[in-house]
Amino acid sequence: MTASKTTTVEVRLPSRLGFEKVAMSTASAVAKLMGFREDRIEDLKTAVAEACINAIEHGNRLNEKLSVGVILSAGEDALEVKVIDDGKGMRKQPVKPDIDRKMHGEEDPRGMGMFLIQALVDEAEWVAGSDGKSSYVRLVIRLDKD
Length: 146
Fold this sequence. Notes:
single chain, alpha+beta, Heat Shock Protein 90, 4 helices, 5 strands
């Protein structure tokens, strides 16, 4: 039995809004090489962008001295993406937002990114760093074998 081969691509982004597009493009290129359908690539790009924006804004608090790490691990049937920041991480898993309340201005219209990420990928996990920093979100999107 042979071990499955994994290809890893790493990108380091400045904590400046706009650079999430670099991670989106990289994830898109890897997914295309793996044979993902275009609609799944769009889902992936959106999820990666949201994860990077959260890392830049909430994890690194827009501190340009800190960077966001993006590690893409392409396996035979899935792509795993880790987005790593220097924040403390999430204290709890995301809760489904009340979209009606947001639409009527009764709740902050922001705060849907984590829910959106969960809806777009096959797995999403938020992990707080054991040292109180270097937390990450781990996304997995599986290749359809249609």
